[in-house]
Amino acid sequence: MSTISLCVVTRDHAPHLPRCIESVQPYVDEVIVLDSGMLNGAGEWAAQAGARMIAYQWNGNAAEARTRAARAAQSDWVLMMDATETLAPG
User: Are 30 and 65 in contact (CB under 8 A)?
Assistant: First the structure.
């Protein structure tokens, strides 16, 4: 059976992160959050929810950040989402 990793790259959208992760938790095997400067304690919440946190120094290159997150994934498939996105039920 195939496995799925969720990768989220976030910086200033940390308050949205819990909703994003909660929307996909039933469907993914792994959650990776690339932290490029989160505020408001969302990083701590993500870690408590079982997400693997990766620190990243933001350099203005979103493609590089997404590639770094995807390379950390250990599943067969990678679902890449922004922290402001949620997966619709069903």
Answer: no
Taking alpha carbons only, the member of 15, 6, 8 closest to residue 42 is 15
Residue 78: strand pairing partners = 5
pLDDT, tens digit, 9 for 90 and up, residues 28-64: 999 999 987 766 666 777 787 789 988 888 898 989 9
**pLDDT score recorded for residue 39:** 62
**Residue 11 pLDDT exceeds 90:** no
Cβ proximity of 2 and 77 under 8 Å: yes
pTM: 0.87
| Contact call for residues 58 and 37 (beta carbons, < 8 A) | yes
**Contact (Cβ atoms closer than 8 angstroms) between residue 3 and residue 29:** yes
